[in-house]
Amino acid sequence: MLLTVTNTGRRTCELTYYPIVRFDEMQWAPQADKDTRPQAVTTLKPGGSGYASVRLSAADGSGEGGTTARRLTLMFQGMTPNSDGGATASPALPTKGVYYDSSLTVPYGQQSLDGIAGWWARQGGAVSAASARPRSPSR
Fold first, then answer.
1. In the chain, helix, strand, coil percent, each to 5?
2. Which residue range forms the structural domain that includes residue 6?
3. Is residue 138 part of a domain?
4. What is the per-residue pLDDT across 65-105, written as a single tens digit (0 to 9) for each?
């Protein structure tokens, strides 16, 4: 699932690390794909967009505990790992929801779609889109 993150604030903000993904009331946090860490922090000017994605399930069916989610919440990290970035987003999911399992993985935020394209090719997954428009953190 492709995520487009747009800075709707008036100041430049940074898409640090990777978004924390939470479907419905899940009690665990998906792991980040450390191989996708960009060389520099993704900087978003007002109106600018960055990209992340979510591998919902393994193409080989190796994931466990699959379920269909109806609600998605994205939380963004601050300047240190796992810190509160102040912004959240709740993009709409398809009416039928999205299926995910224990292989749920999130890459780091990227400045361009090209940064995500290679990751998708390695994952063997199909892309569906959700738009995340967080509030600009008050930094």
1. 10, 40, 50
2. 2-132
3. no
4. 999 999 999 888 877 777 777 778 888 999 999 999 998 88
